[in-house]
Amino acid sequence: MRKCLRCNCNMIENYDVKVEGGAYGLKITKQGIFKDNLGKVHAAVCPECGYLEFYLEDTKKIKE
Asked: What does the pLDDT look like over 8-59, one tens digit per residue?
């Protein structure tokens, strides 16, 4: 469970992130010739103060 950095409440997770217009969602990719898709971006929202946090669900693809 994610905790809000501002008020320490439990955040509500698994909201999808969408871009208005023709694109649906955001994807995080590693730079380079052969871009490695790191996954779909999700959001968590604090129901108390409205703080918003983006995160990747699967972090196994993240490499240094």
From this structure: 999 999 888 777 666 666 666 666 655 667 777 888 999 999 999 988 887 7
As beta bridge partners, residue 53 has: 44
- For the chain, helix, strand, coil in percent to 5 are 0, 40, 60
pTM: 0.68
Pairwise CA distance, residues 30 & 32, whole Å = 7
Whether 63 has a pLDDT exceeding 80, the answer reads: no
Closest of 55, 54, 49, 52 to residue 7, by C-alpha? 49
Say if CB 6 and CB 21 are below 8 A apart. Answer: no
The two tokens of residue 56 are 């990747």
